[in-house]
Amino acid sequence: MGKIEELLVNRGLYDSVDISIDDLDELEKYLSKRDYVGNTIDCFCKQCGTNRVFEYATSEIHEETGIMRINIFDDVSGKMRIPKKEETFNSYLNKRYVLTYRCTRDKGHAILFDLIVTDDKIIKIGQYPSVADLVIPEIAKYKSVLGTQYRELSKAVGLFAHGIGIGSFVYLRRIIEKLVFDKYSEVADRISIPSEEFEHQKFDVKIETLKEFLPNILVENKNVYGIVSKGIHELSEDECLEMFPYVRAGIELILDDLLAERERKAKEKMFEKFVAQKTGELRK
Ligand SMILES: [Zn+2]
Q1: Rounded distance between C-alpha atoms, residue 28 and residue 40, angstroms
Q2: How far is CA 6 from CA 2, 10, 29, 69, 264, in A?
């Protein structure tokens, strides 16, 4: 996924990506007014209830961003010739773009983006439906694993969608903590570590203690807890926002594991019950 698509689909409001002349192809693909055939994004469609390909439909380009106007031709004073590529690149800068994409399954399903392009970055200043609207249906399946804590995951996503990085990390950390503490309560009688000792262990040691019972993906990447904690205490809002999609993906992988385990157990139970019942019946 290119950086502009990443900004459109996965990033929250007021998040940005840096651009330089090396990104000209991508700028042309996503921001030029002409109907570019390859300009599609993969995105959750709220109305379809699933991921769809969205196709560029229209754009409105405002020549002024209202926040700055740098005259990029100033230092040239008419003598030096600006290379063609640079001239094209410059033509995309310091403008505001309102883009509409339509679901390829039903043209009535649309998603709108509002972007400001400065001289070195693209900032997302608007989106409808919101990132949270698009992500919430995707995470709804974790309700059965998270129980009441599902609200915390949806809050984390909601905060991220509104450009609040550190706050969203607080919820992500609580989710990891609860997964580990719940697992300890579940298996405490099967391991030889008393609860006072477990409580005093550092978090990565706790994960190590429970390694046979926790999803592998968490055990192998137990540093995620340290990363999230560092985010809460030491990193900037922007750094947390930057990392959020990755940490979220990691937590979803852990939840996917728990979900699969739960489904497997339910199927096993159903199957065993069936075999036991039929065996009994056939004996008669
Ligand atoms: Zn749709």
Answers
A1: 13
A2: 6, 5, 14, 26, 34
Beta bridge partners of 54: 41, 103
State the distance from the centre of ligand 1 to the C-alpha of 92, rounded, in angstroms: 30
Question: What is the 134 CA–ligand 1 centroid distance (Å)?
Answer: 12
Read off the pLDDT of residues 39-69 as tens digits, 9 standing for 90 and up: 899 998 989 988 899 999 988 898 877 665 5
Q: How far is the CA of 4 from the centre of ligand 1 (A)?
A: 21
Residue 37 has what DSSP assignment? T
Window from 64-68, 118-122, 179-183, 233-237 with minimum mean pLDDT: 64-68
Single-letter amino acid, residue 272: E
User: How many angstroms separate the alpha carbon of residue 20 from the centre of ligand 1?
Assistant: 33
Reading the block at residue 159, the tokens are 């905060």
Distance 253 CA to ligand 1 centre (A): 26
Token pair for 207: 């994960």
Query: Long-range contacts made by residues 196-200, C-beta under 8 angstroms, separation at least 24?
Result: none
* Residue 116, pLDDT above cutoff 80: yes
Residue 223 CA to ligand 1 center (angstroms) comes to 38
The Å distance, Cα 260 to ligand 1 centre, comes to 28
- Half-sphere CA count of 113, side-chain side, radius 13 A: 33
User: How far, in Å, from the CA of 50 to the mean position of ligand 1?
Assistant: 8
E strands in the chain:
16-18, 40-45, 50-62, 95-103, 110-117, 121-128
Report residue 135's pLDDT band, with 50, 70 and 90 as the boundaries: confident
Residue 127 alpha carbon to ligand 1 centre in Å:
16
Q: How confident is the model at residue 79 (pLDDT cuts 50, 70, 90)?
A: low
Using the mean position of ligand 1's atoms as its centre, give its distance from the Cα of residue 44 in Å: 8
